[in-house]
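hey can u run this one w/ 4'-deoxy-4'-aminopyridoxal-5'-phosphate bound, need the structure tokens asap thx
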Amino acid sequence: MSRVFNFSAGPAVLPKAVLQQAHDELLDWQGSGVSVMEMSHRGKEFMSIAAQAEKDLREIMAIPDNYKVLFLQGGASSQFTMVPMNLLGDKTTADYAYTGHWSKKAVAEGKRHCDANVVVDTSADKFTTLPPQSGWKLNKDAAYLHYTPNETIAGVEFNWTPEAGDVPLVADMSSSILSRAIDVSKYGVIYAGAQKNIGPAGLTIVIIREDLLDLAGDNVPPMLHYKIHADNDSMYNTPPTFAWYMAGLVFQWIKKQGGVKAMAEINKRKAGKLYDAIDASGGFYRNPVQKDARSLMNVPFILVDEALDKDFLDGAAKTGLVQLKGHRSVGGMRASIYNAMPEEGIDVLVDYMKQFQSEKG
Ligand code: PMP
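ok here u go:
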């Protein structure tokens, strides 16, 4: 069996130890005689898996007791709708930071429900900057302030948390959750699709401050209603049981690595090696993002001549480095280096980049 270094933006690489454990217990989970996929979600075995996963996530993110953790479906894209449907209450406006492709989608969905006020817009810079909050035009009557801590496509990441005062702060953490320590108490809602730093696609995690659960009325359909999911321990309908189990294995793996603080140190080192290689290439490779807004998770870079892109990707694949093609809106390459990408993968990539440059530069 051979595994490559997979730089996919998502669904993304999972820790090998987690895949191995899932493999080992696939046919018979801990003497139950069945696979996790075959268990009733209400049976005692799955209930124990579900509870342990939530406990571990609460521990590694230090989630305060007045927050609910929901294990839902529908991807982060459903959250673009659920956030306004659940949080507007009597209000008619919400604030949005528009800093990339995914926040654009959140704004578009917000506009279907309210007056979505764009407080900062970096589209003119092609999403390579993150202006300080002093220039944002916040509205004190907003139902919430929505932002995207890490924009997966442009590779731009906040290394600071916006200050929203009494307005609940809502974060789409799909591509940065668990990559560093955050203070959950600063947020009203945190949500993330699982398929980058949590586990397989099909699971969406929502972390919500309890007082916000009462804002939605009966007109919100049950499957889109945070309180209904919270009151039913995320089992209003059949949850994505196998993805929930896999997420639990990933949480245990993170604990074994030393938690999110340790992950952040490794992530900084990994990203540092890659950005250093790009910056030291004399322009052969280039990352256009403002230096203090560079993402630790998604590192886009373009080659000096796009005619070299195909050769670069072909040679990379032969070296066991796959899924490096950049998003079509940015072009070039993108290395997604989530928690589960081993540091060795970065070392091999950096060596390959140097060798390619020495041949073609
Ligand atoms: N937000 C961000 C930051 C993302 O990276 C993605 C997926 N790449 C999404 C939202 C959409 O997620 P999903 O496909 O789970 O709906």
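Residues 244 and 293 are 32 Å apart (CA to CA). anyway lmk if its weird
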